[in-house]
């Protein structure tokens, strides 16, 4: 399946300043397993801990699937082809 | 699951305050209306009033500009909204965020006034950094000078009230920090939606009297209700959660700047913030519980006096801003800077500079170096 991942509010700095990535993933990936997948496949070094804590998105970072908070979707059923994932930091600046 | 407000929309989030599932349109509308209710309930603004909005280019002030502009029209509040921004002179940070402010000023058609540290104090933050050194925190200078610059900005546009983007999370953080440090004297003020509840009419009269005989202040006596330094600050986002502000800005794709300041310290505040973020994951009402607790705490009189006796307030003998000592913090810091600066910039006359900045249109101030 193919997904888009967009990064907002400073998180692009963890992804070499990329704001938008196209991801090709195994069809079994769920909202829960996507986060460690991103850590293991897209990040290296410090950014790993800056985005992910205990296999889940770090507190203070919003994780949206098709504009909806990820906790509203079934966490264990696979994501769908074409889903739009957005990660938004609430921590920086002000 | 359908939206709890309209009954049809696709649910995109649960509200922080009550876990109600809402659709995007209802969320945006409710968020705006709740800010409006907070404003009405606390009587923050008067019709036709000139309201300065402190604009930094960050998410909170960007959101505040959009929401105030929107509800001003929706509810015919007839506010004369204007933007005031401070240019601290931090290369790679403030110049970019000011671009955001300038764009927003254009989008909403709101007049923008920028007050720069260099103009007002003769130093940019980058130059201050060079004088005080990498190791010491720059945030005291920055905060003290910014407060002064904002007041000057308000005077320049004729506003005697300024709206700031501080949200519930910021306030909860500050409450915790005050507790951690034992600085309980600030608790009451931290939680105010409008500053100045501790300024009695007697004190105000006394300070206004002092203005009449202060060389730098005498010309403002008839124009201003409040002495410089006491311009009321209001927080329309006092009950707004950071998380919802970020989402609001995200859904509307408002332009904001989110890079951290070059001088941002690894701070105590960061520690309080992490603690709150983790607690919030367990119970989302923690933020507002702290805000409400802070609101209800009142110091016992024997401590209140020690913590900050307002009756000793006077005007800074030099610049005329309200101060608890002969010289205000800003004048003291500036004196210290000049002493520590091997380049010794000559004649940094803060009164002349303020007058310069206030006179319209802005003339160029000769660079005195430093
Ligand atoms: S972090 Fe930067 S902008 Fe904020 S107070 Fe410190 S020096 Fe000023
Ligand atoms: Zn709805
Ligand atoms: Zn002074």
UniProtKB/TrEMBL annotation, chain A:
What's one Pfam family the UniProt record gives for this protein? Urm1
Keyword field:
Cytoplasm, Isopeptide bond, tRNA processing, Ubl conjugation pathway
Q: In which pathway does it act?
A: tRNA modification; 5-methoxycarbonylmethyl-2-thiouridine-tRNA biosynthesis
Where does this protein have coiled-coil stretches?
none
Keyword Lyase listed: no
| Subcellular localization | Cytoplasm
Modification after translation, per record: C-terminal thiocarboxylation occurs in 2 steps, it is first acyl-adenylated (-COAMP) via the hesA/moeB/thiF part of the MOCS3/UBA4 homolog, then thiocarboxylated (-COSH) via the rhodanese domain of the MOCS3/UBA4 homolog.
Which Gene3D superfamilies would you find in this protein's record?
A: 3.10.20.30
Q: Which residues carry this modification: 1-thioglycine?
A: 94
Specify where it is mainly localized.
Answer: cytoplasm
Linked residues for Glycyl lysine isopeptide (Gly-Lys) (interchain with K-? in acceptor proteins): 94
The record's family statement is: Belongs to the URM1 family.
Record PANTHER family: RURM1 PROTEIN (PTHR14986)
Q: What is this protein called?
A: Ubiquitin-related modifier 1 homolog
From TrEMBL, chain B:
- Residues in domain Cytoplasmic tRNA 2-thiolation protein 1 C-terminal? 315-342
Membrane-spanning segments = none
* GO molecular function terms listed in the Swiss-Prot or TrEMBL record: nucleotidyltransferase activity
In this chain the tRNA(Ile)-lysidine/2-thiocytidine synthase N-terminal domain maps to 51-185
Origin superkingdom: Eukaryota
Instruction: Name the top EC class.
Output: transferase
Q: What's the family?
A: Belongs to the TtcA family. CTU1/NCS6/ATPBD3 subfamily.
State what protein this is by name.
Answer: Cytoplasmic tRNA 2-thiolation protein 1
Q: Which organism is it from?
A: Blattamonas nauphoetae
Biological classification of the source? Eukaryota, Metamonada, Preaxostyla, Oxymonadida, Blattamonas
């Amino acid at each position: 399946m193919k997904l888009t991942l967009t990064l907002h509010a400073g998180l692009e700095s963890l992804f070499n300043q990329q704001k938008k990535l196209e991801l090709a993933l195994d069809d079994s990936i769920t909202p829960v397993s996507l986060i460690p997948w991103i850590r293991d496949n897209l990040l290296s070094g410090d950014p790993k801990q800056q985005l992910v804590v205990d296999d889940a998105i770090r507190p203070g970072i919003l994780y949206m699937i098709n504009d909806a908070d990820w906790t509203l979707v079934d966490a264990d059923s696979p994501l769908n082809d074409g889903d739009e994932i957005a990660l938004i930091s609430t921590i920086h600046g002000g | 699951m359908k939206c709890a407000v309209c009954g049809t929309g696709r649910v995109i989030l649960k509200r922080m305050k009550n876990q109600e599932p809402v659709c995007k349109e209802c969320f945006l509308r409710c968020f705006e209306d709740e800010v409006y209710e907070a404003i009405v309930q606390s009587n923050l603004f008067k019709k036709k009033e000139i309201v300065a909005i402190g604009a930094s280019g960050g998410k909170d002030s960007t959101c505040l500009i959009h929401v105030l502009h929107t509800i001003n029209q929706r509810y015919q509040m007839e506010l004369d909204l204007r933007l005031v921004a401070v240019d601290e002179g931090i290369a790679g940070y403030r110049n970019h965020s000011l671009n955001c402010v300038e764009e927003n000023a254009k989008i909403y058609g709101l007049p923008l006034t920028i007050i720069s540290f260099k103009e007002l104090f003769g130093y940019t933050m980058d130059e201050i950094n060079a004088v005080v050194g990498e190791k010491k925190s720059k945030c005291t200078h920055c905060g003290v000078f910014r407060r002064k610059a904002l007041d000057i900005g308000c005077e320049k546009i004729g506003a005697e009230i300024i709206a700031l983007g501080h949200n519930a999370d910021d306030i909860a953080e500050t409450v915790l920090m005050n507790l951690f440090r034992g600085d309980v004297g600030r608790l009451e003020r931290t939680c105010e939606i409008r500053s100045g509840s501790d300024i009695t009419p007697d004190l105000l009269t006394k300070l206004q009297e002092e203005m009449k005989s202060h060389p730098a202040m005498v010309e403002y006596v008839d124009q201003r209700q409040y002495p410089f330094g006491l311009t009321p600050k209001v927080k329309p986002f006092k009950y707004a959660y950071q998380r919802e502000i970020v989402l609001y800005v995200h859904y509307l794709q408002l332009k904001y700047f989110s890079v951290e300041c070059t001088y941002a310290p690894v701070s105590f505040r960061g520690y309080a913030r992490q603690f709150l973020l983790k607690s919030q994951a367990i119970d989302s009402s923690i933020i507002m519980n702290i805000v409400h607790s802070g609101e209800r705490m009142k110091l016992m009189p024997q401590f209140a006096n020690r913590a900050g006796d307002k009756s000793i307030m006077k005007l800074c003998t030099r610049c005329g801003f309200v101060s608890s000592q002969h010289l205000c913090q800003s004048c003291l810091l500036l004196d210290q800077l000049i002493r520590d600066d091997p380049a010794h910039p000559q004649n940094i006359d803060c009164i002349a500079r303020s007058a310069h900045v206030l006179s319209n249109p802005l003339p160029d101030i000769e660079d005195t170096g430093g």
